[in-house]
Amino acid sequence: MKILIYSYNYWPEPIGIAPLMTDLAEGLAQRGHEVRVVTAVPWYPESKINPEYQGKLYCTEHRNGVKIQRCYVRASTKRNLRNRALFELSFIFFSFFQALWGKRPDVLILTVPGLPVGIPAGILGFLYRCPVILNLQDILPDAAVHVGLLTNQKAIRIFEGLEKFNYGIATKISVIAEGFKDNLLGKGVAEEKIAMIPNWVDVNFIKPLSRENNYFRAENQLEGKFVVLYSGNIALTQGLETVIDAATHLQDIPEIAITIVGEKKALNRLQKYCQERGANNVRLIPFQPREKLPEMLSAADIGLVIQKKNVIAFNMPSKIQVLLSSGRAIIASVPASGTAAKAIRASEGGIVVPPEDPKALAVAIRELYEDPERVKVLGQNSRKHAIENYAFDAALDRYEDLFDKLVKR
Fold first, then answer.
1. Is the peptide bond prior to 114 cis by the omega test (within 30 degrees of 0)?
2. How many CB atoms lie within 10 A of CB 271?
3. How far is 356 from 236, CA to CA, in rounded Å?
4. How far apart are the C-alpha atoms of 237 and 245, rounded to whole Å?
5. What's the number of CA atoms in the CB half-sphere (13 Å) around residue 323?
6. What is the pTM of this model?
7. What was the pLDDT predicted at 142?
8. CB-based contacts of 347: which residues, under 8 Å, 6+ apart?
9. 3-state class of 339 per DSSP?
10. Is 119 buried (19+), middle (13-18) or exposed (0-12) by CB count in 10 A?
């Protein structure tokens, strides 16, 4: 089957949607499908184009059986509505012509964020006479409005219109959690149009490894430490200041090392906050190469999932599946009634504490530090749950089944 994946993000971007879409494309290619990806030149999370791609309007690559067709985007480190609009418009325009340069697909997968790309995807679905699957990784504009990223009323109305348009052009909408489905049903989307396919993790790649001779511990002076690790995006929805504030309550235990791995620019901001708070037990480390991810995760005793109070209930961070697969005990500082909290509780691999509550987070870390047997049991539960519920092969099976039904129909 010929499959076209339409996504803003793809390899080599290290976090967010990029690893998921890369896994999906390469996994489908390994199963014998002809996979083509239309995407932007790498720009995330630094919001600037990678040096080796600068000055390129279009380029085509082949990697692990996947044809990757990239186009220029107007990226800017200054985040405002104007720059975001220019980014969206540049991707819509240039990606459309790139998408035309290839074989007619049997099925087109469009991933959201973002919404404007639904316009060229809808046109392509019409021209190619192929089903369009809308893969929802977040629900916009609800999520952006809820956390204050989108406040302009005119822009909100535009994005609400785009959201409705995307649901209309989609033959099927794949969602990653029950909360997403409930949201769509509340907006009048027909239940038969929705398919539940949770995000996945490659349990053969992300797996528990020995802490002995661990490069991440050795390189960052973490030998003999009880490592509490946060790795991922550092944005408005996370609130990593809570982690730093919690660290100030743990300075009487020098063995505890709070470790945050993220984008360099965001780390610089957190470094200033650490200095203000006197948090000298926090390590700030830049993103690691993806091939080093399993070893980095295995360096931790505890993995952190952090959200702010105002994060919308259906938000489901993809790092949850990754931490579970790595066999880590998890502490989730997240809203108690949200999708993330429900996933952690269901796994029996972690504990949930109130968001933006540094003392509660510190207490949870201290309790696990003092109870290594519980840390071990939670980690074992995590790994077991990941294998049973989030294995990549099971997700591929679901997508292939969906493709077959749509194409036959």
1. yes
2. 15
3. 12
4. 17
5. 29
6. 0.89
7. 78
8. 324, 330, 381, 382, 385, 386, 389
9. helix
10. middle
For 140, counting Cβ atoms within 10 Å of its Cβ (0-12 exposed, 13-18 middle, 19+ buried), the class is buried
Three-state secondary structure call for residue 370: coil
Inter-residue contact 346 to 385 (CB < 8 Å): yes
Amino acid identity for residue 193 in this structure? K
C-alpha angle 195-198-200 in degrees, rounded to nearest 5? 140
For the chain, the farthest-separated pair of C-alpha atoms sits apart, in whole angstroms, at: 65
3-class state of residue 368 by DSSP: helix
Beta bridge partners of 302: 228, 329
Q: Which amino acid is at 169?
A: I
Number of Cβ within a 10 Å radius of residue 251 = 12
Tokens 């893969």 identify what position? 135
Q: Where are the alpha helices (DSSP H) in 147-237?
A: 153-169, 178-186, 215-219
Phi, psi of 284 (to 5 degrees): -115, 120
Instruction: Label each residue of 226-284 as H, E or C.
Output: EEEEEECCCCCCCCCHHHHHHHHCCCCCCCEEEEEEECHHHHHHHHHHHHHHCCCCEEE
Sign of CA dihedral 274, 277, 279, 282: negative
Q: Is the peptide bond before 131 cis (omega within 30 degrees of 0)?
A: no
Q: Which residues contact 94 (CB under 8 A, 6 or more apart)?
A: 57, 58, 71, 72, 73
83-140: per-residue pLDDT in tens? 988 999 999 999 999 999 999 999 999 998 778 899 999 999 999 999 999 999 988 8
Distance CA 383, CA 347 (A): 9
Q: Which two tokens stand for residue 10?
A: 């793809």
Q: Could you tell me which residues are beta bridge partners of residue 242?
A: none
Per-residue pLDDT of 28-82, as tens digits, reads: 999 999 999 999 999 998 899 999 999 999 999 999 999 999 999 999 988 888 8
Structure tokens at 231: 């790795």
Q: Judging by DSSP bridges, how do beta strands 132-136 and 172-175 pair with one another?
A: parallel
Torsion sign across C-alpha atoms 197, 191, 1, 57: negative
361-382 confidence digits (pLDDT tens): 999 999 999 999 999 999 999 9
Q: DSSP label at 111?
A: E
| Separation between Cα atoms, residue 102 and residue 100, nearest integer Å | 6
